[in-house]
Structures are given as C-alpha cells and as structure tokens.
Amino acid sequence: MGLDGRAVTGPMRRLIATAQNGLEVIRFGGLEPGTSSSPYQVVERCGMYRLRRYFPDSDTAASGPPVVLVPPMMMSADVYDVTRDSGAVGVLHAAGLDPWVVDFGSPDQEEGGWDRTLTDHILALDEIVDRIHAYTGRDVHLGGYSQGGMFCYQAAAYRRSRNIASLITFGSPVDTLAALPFGIPGPVATLSADFLADHVFNRLAITGWMARTGFQFLDPVKTVRSRIDFLRQLHDREALLPREPQRRFLDTEGWVAWSGPAVADLLRQFVAHNRMVSGGFVINDKPVTLAEITCPILAFLGEVDDIGQPLAVRGIRRASPRAEVYEYSLRAGHFGLVVGSVAAQQTWPATSEWVQWREGIGDRPVGVSPMTAPEPSDEGATGVSISSRVAHTVATLADVGADIGKGIAEVAAGAVRGARDLSGEAARALPRLARLGQIQPRTRVSVGSLLAEQGRRGPQRECFIFEDRVYTYQAVNRRIDNIVLGLVDNGVRPAMRVGVLMNVRPSAMAAVAAVSRLGAVSVLIPPGPDAAAAARLGGVEKLVSDPENLDLAIGTGLPVLVLGGGDVRDLDVEPGADVVDLERTDISGVHLPGWYVPDPGLARELAFVLFVGSGPTLETKRVTNYRWALSAFGTATAASLGRRDTMYCLAPLHHSSGLLVSFGGALAGGARIALSNGLDPAKFGEEVHRYGVTVVTYTWSMMREVLDSPSLHIDASHPIRLFIGSGMPPGLWWRTLERFAPARVVEFYASTEGDVILANVSGSKVGSKGRPLPGSAAVGLAAYDPLTGRLIEDDRGFVRSCADGEVGLLLGKPGASNEALGDVMRGVFEPGDVWIATENLFRRDADGDYWLLDNKRGVVVTAHGPVYSQPVIDMLGMIPRIDLAVSYGITLGDSDIAVAACTLRGKKAPTAAEITAALDVVPEAERPDLVHIVPSIPIGPSYRPAADKLREHGLPTPTVRSWYADRDTGTYKRFTKAVATKWAAGTAGATPAAR
Questions:
Q1: What is the pLDDT of residue 425?
Q2: Which of 587, 611, 616, 889 maximizes the CB count within 10 A of its CB?
Q3: pLDDT of residue 177
Q4: How far apart are CA 389 and CA 381, in angstroms?
Q5: Do the Cβ atoms of 81 and 37 come closer than 8 Å?
Q6: How far apart are CA 510 and CA 482, in angstroms?
Q7: CA distances from 734 to 648, 651, 740, 880 (A)
Q8: In this structure, are residues 690 and 714 in contact, taking their beta carbons and an 8 Å threshold?
Q9: Which residue has the higher pLDDT, 383 or 131?
C-alpha cells in the first residue's frame, strides 16, 4: 500500500499556517486585514472631546444632512468605523449623508479625565450640537449606541430639542429597571447601584480592561464561542480576515476607561432612581425630563439583546409622550446592532433612509413602525421573545454546548423575584420602625439633626428642587449653618420662640431647620389677618419673614429678620423699623458662643407651635421633637418613600400636613423635596415631569384647583405614584384617582394632640382615615355624648370603650415626652392608664378602620339628634354635579338646625332625588335639615372650605336650589317660603331628618 504525500503535507501546511498566524496575533494583537479606516478631520478639539468630521474633502455646501454619532463612555469612537465598507460612517456617507463622530477619548489619557461627570458629557453634546448647526447651517440628526444613545436623549431633553432634527438610538435602555441583564430583580439592582455609587465609584474608576472584561461577562457563552471559532480557523487566514477588525475591536482596541464620578452619576440617577422614565435627573444643577423632547425618535432594538433589552428600550415611549417615537426591530445582539454584517445590511441603511424621510426626500423606511407603550405580560417580561431566545440559545448550544447555567439562573431569579420585592419593602420599613421604638425622652432628634444626618450619608445627593435649580444636602446644610450665624448675631438663643412667617420656599425650610439647629422653637405663623394675634398667642420674641410677608411681620411690632430672595433685592422699609436683612448681614466676623451645640433638641422638648382656627377661635398646638419624628418616619414608612422619590410639597409649613407629613416624611425617607412658588395649575404638569415628581402632597381641596384648571396638561405617562395629605373629600379623591391613574391616594390623620397617626394606606375605603400607623400611639375610642359634651361612663366609673359603629372621642396613648407637656387623662379605661384626648369624634367599622365624624365643638345638636358634618360633606361631595360642600348649624329661636351648602361643578344643580339618595347612607337622625346651593364657598389658606360666612347669613333664602327634609315622606323637597316662614316661627325643632 503506497503512501499519499498529501496526507502528510496537508496537515503540515495547516500546522505551519496556524503557527505563522498565531505568531502574528501574539506580536501585533491580531492579523493585519489590509483594510483602512475612513478618513476624518478633527474639526474641534478641547479637553472633553474631539469632534471628527468624516470624509472632510466633501464639499460642505453639497453635503447631506449632518448625522452626529455618540459612543458609549466605555467604548472607543472607532465603533462607528470598524471597517470602511461596512462601518456606520462609510454606509452613511455612501447614502449621501454627512457623518460626524464624537470622540470623548479615554479619561486615563486626558487631563482631568478621571474627574469627568455625567454632566460634563451632556454639556459637551449640547456644545457640539451648537457647533455643528453653526458649521453646516442645518439641524442635526443626533444618534448614539447604548449609553451614547442615553446621552443623546439627555442632551435633547436638556436643549428641549433645539436644533435637533431627530434622535436615533441603538440598543439604548430608558426604563433600566424594567428589564435588567440576567433577570436581576429591580430591588437588588437599586440597592446595589446606590451602594456602588456612594461607596465604590466615588473613589474608584473603571479601566479599559475592566470595561472589556465586564462586557464579555455579560455574554460569556458568546465570548467563549468566538474564541474557539478563532482558534479553530487560525490556519485559514482568508476565512478570518473579514471578521478580524471586529474581533480586534472587541478583544483589545475598542475599550476605554470610565471615570468614577460619571459611573456613579449613571448608577445613581438612571439605575437606582430610574429617572430616565420618571424625569427629574440633574444636569448642571437643573432638573431635566425626557418629556420635554419634541423631535422625532427612532429606536433600534435587538430581538436577542440581553443588555439593552427591548422592554427597557421601549421605555422611551412613556418617557417622551410629546415626541413621535418609532422603532426598528432586528434579530441581533447588543454589539451586532452597530457592528457586523447585520448592522451593515439593516441598521445603517435604515438609518440613512430614516434621515432622508425626516428631511422630506424619501419615504418611511420599511421596518420602521410607530412604537407602542410597552405592556409586559408578567413580572419577569423583558421584551425579548421566547422564540428569539430559543433560536439564539439553540445556535449557541450547537457551537459550544454550555448555556445551561444561564437558563437555570434566569429561572431562579424569576422564581424569587416576588420574595425579594417583599423583602425590599421590609428592608425600608423595618429600620424606620425600629428607630422609632428606640427614641426615648432624652434621645437627640430634631429637624436639624435629621438634615445633618442625611448630609453626612450623601453630601452630594439632591435635597431640594426649586425654580429649576437643584440644591444638594451639602449646600442646604451650609445655608442652614450660615442662617444660624445670622440668628446668633441677632440674639437668638436656645428655647427662644422664633416666629416664622414665610411662604413655601427653600429659605422657609432652611429657617425652620436653623432654629432647630440652635435648639430654639419655631412658631409657624400662617400669613393672613391673624398673623399679629398668632405671634402674641405663640409667645414670639423674634420673627423671621420673607420679603413678601414683610409688611405683615412689621405689623406685629416684633423685631424682624428678613430671609429669602437673595441679596440682590431691596426692602421697602420705613426708617427706624426694627428690621434686619439676614441676606446682607456680614457673618464672616460672627463667632459662635460657648453655649452653642448643634442640634441639641431632645425628643421630649417642644420643637414647634402650630395654629388652628381663626379669629376668636385661633389657638395653639404644640409639637415636640418626638411628635415630629413620629410623623416623619411614619409617613416615610406608610408611603414607602426612598431616594428614588421626589416629593412635590404644595402644603405650607404652617399647616400640620406640610410640616409633619411633607417635610418630615421626605427627610426621613431620603426623598427629594420639590417646591413650587405657590399652587399654579399651569406649572403643575410641567414641574411634575421636569422634576420627576413621584409623590404629591395636598391639603383639603387643593387638588380641585389642579383638576379644574384648563391649563393642566398631563397624560398617562406621568411619574406620579402617590398623593399623600389630609382632608381630601371623597368626590375629589375619586376624581384624582381617575385623572392620575394608576396613582393612589394615602389619606392621613395626624392629631396635633398626642401621638395619634391614622393612615388609609390601601386606599380601598375612599373617605376613611384608615388605621393607626405602626410605631405611633396606641388608639382608644371613648364613648361620647355630643348632647352633653361628656364622656360616657360605665357602672364602675370608668369611661366606656366604644363598640364598632359607635360614636366616640379619639384618644391616644402618650409617650414620656408627651406626659411632660401635661394635658393628660388618667384612669380612663382602667386604673392608672394615661391617655391624651384629641378634639375629634370618630366611628370605627368592623374591619378596624376609623371614619372621622366631626370636631367635638362642631357637632350641631338639633331636636332630632346630633348632626356630624363630615359624613354629610362626604356624601354630598360624591354627587357628580357637586363641587364643594360644607355643613354647619344655625339657630332659629330656641333650636338649632343643620344646614349643608354646596357649590356646583357646572351650571346644572342636582335634583331632590339625587340629594335624597346621596344622604340615604347617613343615619336618619344625622342628616341635615336643609341643603342649598350657593355661588361660592370661601377657601382658607390651607384650601379648607369654611362655613363661617355662610353661618353669619342665617337661614338661607328659599330658592329652586334649596331642599328641606320632609318629615312625612322621608325625602328632600324644595325649600319654599311657606316652610321658611314656619321654621322662622320656631317650629324647626319639629322637623325631622329625611330617611
């Protein structure tokens, strides 16, 4: 048998070729493909970027529309020119477009590169758009891959689409928490991103090799497969050369370093807080939202992309409701969207056709379709279809056979996601409740200490947003310390009562915090005619005012310290007035005295004085540091507030809801506080999107001003998840739920006496005040006789505890700090027990939920029994035609009758049958004697409808829009002159309520 020479020479040649090619790879990092990159000229160079214009020999006047391509932070700008024939810039130029590429360089090779922030990149893009627009005289088509596309979204929002013809993104996630790589649960990603941003990347950067390794670990199977393929074909140079530029780019040449601050910004704002969707991310100290993008958008998405997953990419539809948003879906992974044969055949030709279509010189490209809002079918949906995953995985298994572990990991992640979500909620709630339980009378806790604590945890985190400017905790605490110096210089000392007469603004909160940091007491005075009386009643020694309330402050006769408005305004003050402008006070020479200890306030000590009532009924309510902390941590727990939240504080600080719920809850939860200069419905929708508002606070009928305004422009893409406050009427509650779905309403009741906090957290019973918050005072309901105004005792002399459905006075168990203030009741239900009585009457239903009836002094005692105002107001307010309602009593002769007054939402009044049906759920003896329509109902500063002026008018004039309770038929009938005459003659007491 002869020996065939080819059997020997063939393997030998293969071995020699493998050795030669392998040696070339070892020496030079890869094979030399013999191809060149596209020519370019650096048109602009600065420390932050180099701006490349490709094919510079082209005539600028004859060039097509400019297309600017932005790379991700961790990838070289050459990603758009891996090969001249199939790279992005080559294909776009061949289609008649004018390609430009932004080259950020590598931070480790640029001066100051390691200190780059996210803002630096966005401001660079903002400048680049201006430069190219000036250079070409045309609007720019701005495009970016992966995080480069995120930069494009952010820059377009920052510019509000000025000079941007369209946005084109490739695998750029927007809703980052909707679909994370490897099925990582959102709570895990949020906590990890926050930790890494605050404790790792604030002192560590990512080098190029770390970026390359991390990217490869995102798809380890594909990485291993490509390397095995390369080794298997190392002998065949011709087979390897077409893919060699792409391999070298991914393995060695295509990666650059990330600066630590930029990575921290990315993780904090767009992963932990997901503010690409909610809005309110911060660029150059300004809040920005993608909702302000108005130019057309085309988003390319890969059907098997596990990094920029389709569900995350499609988040742009919700985030930018005012833009035309289109998508182009192709079967590709993350890198395959922009580099390789699929990109050359589909991505870049479609991009060219898109630009031509938007310029009016072509039709809409085939495959480009309007994007619809993503609706995942289940909790684990990512937008990558099962069929795509199966096809992709089968191909991978055939080549390598090693993808089993990843599949198991995804199944396991999905199986435990629900449990992790629950544990995430518990992780936020339990520490707050535990902290409440640890507060003792001598524990140091106050507004100032909580602000300082948040500042130590994250000095660069955002604290306030006001008038489109963001203030960090570091800046806020510096401002507070400066105010402290001004207060000390003007004689303020610990325990002194300092009045605060200011509108909603950051300076008002800073003033309150500064008074707290000194250990003094803030007396929060409502602006209005009762300001002087409130100052006297509160024992104010000095008064802090803003310029808008300066005249009121001077009218009190007290020394006035003016704060707010900056140092560029002039105060119109009479000569000799005792007024000091703190904004212009030179504090550089002020030295803190020896007695000064920052934030000395103890839990048991008085922190605030609030006011309720008006005119002759004006009275004070004292709030200790413990009471404030209880509301703050209780609100943060009930509303599940966290750093991702931005709370829109509309309630003024002088209202308990503003001080205890809004300000306190945001501080305790670490949420941002967004302030608005008064309630302006026209600005409401804009600021909700721009600030990324997730929680809105309210008082009483405040939301009515927003809902009734024709200037409110807000749709289903809004970021609001929660409304929290107190006093919202049920009818308005339902309207709010309908207009802002899927947001919820959490109604609070916080007594100014004791430590009682009720919260309707579930929202399932509209109008209910809910149940006691965990950590708040134990609650009791004492049987109460409204006719005598006394508690009802049992045979042993103790107060009887109410059964379900029975009217009772709400009591709260005091802590040691409240016992120090006095006003306690002892021996109420059993020997030695201690309680603090509130002013309010409640009913408790069989489920344990509490329903407010009335203030004990507001009950109208009629001949047919007591009439409680709140159930009447609630039921009348549920009639669709009714806007506002109040209930009050008037005296006719020797008797009192109960009257309800309503205003209309339109011109048509409800019928007598509708009035009867609405009040049918109110117990028979508790229904009002008269219901009438009025042109208007006065609204107080906290948006609470007031009945005082209506009560002064006495018996309403009979009209076709007034109804009385008929004793015989049990219905409401028209109130006529004959009935009015009979009532005025003294027979009103014989008029029973309708059944």
A1: 45
A2: 611
A3: 86
A4: 12
A5: yes
A6: 10
A7: 20, 20, 10, 10
A8: no
A9: 131
